[in-house]
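Lecture 7, part B: from sequences to assemblies.

Below are the input chains for today's worked example.
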Amino acid sequence: MQNNWVDFKTVRAAVTMEMVLGHYGINGLGKKGDELSGRCPLHEGKGKNTLHVNLTKNVFNCFSCKVRGNVLDFVAAMEKCSLRDAGLKLQEWFAISSAAPTVSTKEKPESRGVEESPPVNKPLSFQLAGIDHEHEYLKARGITPETARTFGVGYFKGKGSMNGRIVIPIHNERGELVAYAGRAIDDSEPRYKLPAGFHKSLELFNLHRVTEPEVILVEGFFDCMKVHQAGFAAVALMGCSLSEAQEQLLAAKCERVIVMLDGDEPGQEAAAECLTRLGRRMWAGWPSWFRKTGSGCTHILFIGWRHSSILRAFGGRVIAQPTGK
Ligand SMILES: [Zn+2]
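Predicted structure of the full complex, as structure tokens:
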């Protein structure tokens, strides 16, 4: 479905001029009825009132530099890029899926601004195709092709912003695909690419696959896949902070949680906080013995875990099999 990668019609319907202006921090325009007007950000001219935006028609024009059009034209002019690239940017910034139903401009209350709408990750209507689950990078990280297939993870060589990266599908708790994370396979930055409009604090990676009452909470995608591979149910924060929404998701779905964030200082501080907060709502524990050896490997022993399991982690990557299970 790569020809749907940019869906101009959906982008135009989903994105209002207000959203785009908000994105660029252009807040000082005067308002009269459904018209905004003010200084034009597209040209260097002095006119204070050359840019006009019609909110009902969702269009703009500048009397001075003569640029006019819809949200796509505006972004293309701001970014000096093609309409297609503008569409790609808008889809990313506002996490737009190409067939998601949207509210038209007219139906929105006038006062609605970007910051007022409650954050939500809309399900994507497309899926990336041609993903290589057996790529060398995955092998080097110790991810088996079987795990990669389970998670839908692999190297993507198609077009778009995720080209040349390991793509990691992220689902909401109902199992709807809401985003792809893209991991660089070399030193290029950013290491992880996420759609700009995606709110990772609203999701727990892999939660939709968890059926067990006990789960291990980890930081990253690869930690999660490794723990899964070791035979445990796992979810990842996609970072080291536990959001309110993630706390609720976890407490609603699971009974017991083992907090196993990274062994570094921020990870351990975050783990302590997770333990305190989750401990109020469910059984929460963490490895009773947790230390780093000189060689940099961390041995973790779970006591109090139902199966008295031992996990060994090297550099944060879990490699051992559970025992007694
Ligand atoms: Zn202008």
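Note for the exam: The first helix runs from residue 8 to 14. Keep this in mind when comparing with the next example.
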